[in-house]
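Changelog-adjacent note: as of this version, every example in the card shows the full chain rather than a window. The one below runs 179 residues end to end.
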Amino acid sequence: MDRYLKAPLDQEEVKTLRAGDYVYITGTIYTARDAAHLRMSQALDRGEKLPIELEGNVIYYMGPTPAREGRPIGSAGPTTASRMDKYTPRLLDLGLTGMIGKGKRKPEVTEAIVRNGAVFFAAVGGAGALLSKCIKKAEVIAYEDLGTEAIRKLEVENLPVIVVIDSQGNNLYEEVLKK
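Full-length structure tokens:
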């Protein structure tokens, strides 16, 4: 089923998504990879405020290539999500609602997704140049010294993703393997 969502995400709408749904996201999302997740975790450990509001927001596990002239961003393909698994349950418990990446997630992440009514989306790996065309604006908002791993605020239009783990814990990868 094709779905069109506005980001930040509405919690009740997220609960209606099912593993396997095709979703097109329009609105504001953020990027963060390994190094940014580590910094956010360290900031939380020190009792500091995070550089982004988590409630209802989506983090895209992506580190772009440099932008070509006239473009807001370079290739924007997904990073393997499991690299963020040790940080994800905590961020979900603090209000993160959606994640975009590729690959499997640990059971602890699935449990946190269900506990918080969140969702894990997959973007197609290897299609970074095509995905970048959905990004209309990009700006570094935190951890600029991390280069491609800095946190970016993106304005996206119809970014295509697939629901892999829905808010009930259904997992598209597991369902396909069973069939």
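Structural remarks: Residues 34-45 form the longest helix (12 residues).
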